[in-house]
Specification:
Number of domains of chain B: 1
Strand content of chain B: 5-15%
Radius of gyration of chain B: 11 Å
Order of helices and strands of chain B: HEEHEH
Strand order of the largest sheet of chain B: 2-1-3
Strand content of chain A: 5-15%
CATH topology of chain B: Histidine-containing Protein, Chain: A
Number of strands of chain A: 17
Radius of gyration of chain A: 24 Å
CATH architecture of chain B: 2-Layer Sandwich
CATH class of the largest domain in chain A: Alpha Beta
Number of helices of chain A: 18
Shape of chain A: globular
Helix content of chain B: 25-40%
CATH superfamily of the largest domain in chain A: Phosphoenolpyruvate-binding domains
Shape of chain B: globular
Number of helices of chain B: 3
Largest sheet of chain B: 3 strands, antiparallel
CATH class of chain B: Alpha Beta
CATH architecture of the largest domain in chain A: Alpha-Beta Barrel
CATH topology of the largest domain in chain A: TIM Barrel
Structural class of chain A: alpha/beta
Oligomer: heterodimer
Structural class of chain B: alpha+beta
Number of domains of chain A: 3
Chain lengths: 536, 84
Amino acid sequence: MDDKSHRAVRRVQGRSAAPGIALGPLLRLAPAKHDARQHRSVAEEHQALVDALAASQEALGLLAGDAGDADAEAILAFQMALLEDDNLTAPAFTLIAQGEVASRAWSAAIDPEIASYEEASDSYFRARASDLRDLRDRVLRYLAGESEQIVPSGVIVAADDMPPSTFLATDWRDGGVVLRRGSPSSHVAILARSRGVPMIVGVDVDHLGDGSDVLLDGDAGTLIIDPDAEMRAIFYQRRAEQSAVRQAGASLRGPAFTASGERVRVMINVTGLAELSRLNPAEVDGIGLMRTEFLFQGRENLPTEEEQYQIYRRMLEWAAGKPVTMRTLDAGGDKPIKGLTQAGGINPFLGVRGVRLSLRNLDVFRAQLRALARAAVAGNLKVMIPMVTVPEELDRCRALLEEAREELRREGQVAQMPPLGMMVEVPAAALAIEDFNADFFSIGSNDLIQYVAAASRDEPQLADLARPSRAVFNLIGHVVKYADSSGRETSLCGDLAGDPEQVAALLDQGLRTFSVVPGALGPVKAAIARYSGVTA
Amino acid sequence: MRHEVGLHARPSVKLTKLAKAFESRIDLGLSPDGPWVDAKSIVKVMATKAPKDSTIYFRAEGADAKVALEALVTLVDGDFQDGR
């Protein structure tokens, strides 16, 4: 470098997980350290709880500062008030003085409070139990050393891995993510794409210096350390171009039409309420995929029927009559859930996952179906079953959903039977689609592609195979054709739908409903508007 | 005094914050004879699970007891301002 004030430029190659570019100082997140020391003194345990409570208070304060919606603020203020209340914390400190470890003392102090809310007759107070559980788990995380470092905006965060909760708690404006672990299909990558946060994975983060300026290229999957003046100039030019594209996309608000005037529905894929607060329901044709497994992850207990119901109901209210497709728990594979999925399956992608797992854990599945049947009265709900392979699985789910509805009626609760459809992601289902008693279909292209090609999407050496091929498009065309002829609707909710370059090929197959991450709405609508009919 | 909303999270946070601003010992109850709970404790106030349209009673003891009661009554009478 001729500029002596700059250190040598270094380039590190990773794998692209979310597109976009970012330039800023690198922030190395400390790895979670599980404190294995069993015998700490009473004074140390006492201090550990004092610190964990203070850290939780600070984190909640920051969250409240930019919560942006009144409901979230109220909950955070409630949690902060609880932390300040000696009536809650004093029993924990008493137990510690008697020799209990901080984590167990804290749980023992707050668990009876949680139980008393769970038993409340008023549904509002019952629902507060989840706020207390959230608070309990936050403090426990700090006690376990899994500190949530506060991430300022505009930095490039480097870490081993990142839980979705940390990602969601961060303001990513002008920032980006570099991970050692994770894959383009990990949940944090899905969130990054949905929020438009550039991200790369597979980078040895240990050799990255804290504080050095880095240029993250989420399109190419590269990280440039100490970029020179020329690279910076190119960055600013590219960023200006990208924001122009995004603005062009943002102008495509209303319904999407092809160049020949044919209406195409464009829905969104979401993981929870947080994403919806930033979106205007008028800009979308509904929610094409709600991944309910996010409600189950990163927590100590599985969510109750009531908790699920409250969230589903609020999503339906947000959609204001537009269709909302909720996919039942799609755990297993690369999405483990504490207390539910079995660790160490021989081949997780070919193992007990999706509906296979639900039908083996009927208590959990029934609670979800009950929550869905109750929520169905609040809007235009559709229920979708993942990983269906044979017709009997779907028949079984339909019977269980009907049972749940009947059971609720007998209890005097309001409930109704929503349309029941299936994900088409197993080639066996796509090939014999005529055999399934489904009210609608949704093609899950991510899994379909890797099952058709027998190539993992997470194996970088096989990236050329794990791509949409003619075989995949033939299967999609087969499903769409059958659905059209039998008066059913087909949508496509995998990453394929959100790729503007594939939009024309999908429209060629007759697909007229796309479900994409919110960040892809603009580009996909623009690609639809350019389409003037089958070219071949 | 009666109030339109129940002692939900937001009104309870407001109430305890206000109560804590005074030196006096302040108690809250759902009947004139108690049982009384510490109005400065969110745990205790929320635990009353006071429903909508219930009547809340306050009693205070201390140097600023009178001002405290007036302020609390104003808050509840005004339905916790925007509180819901």
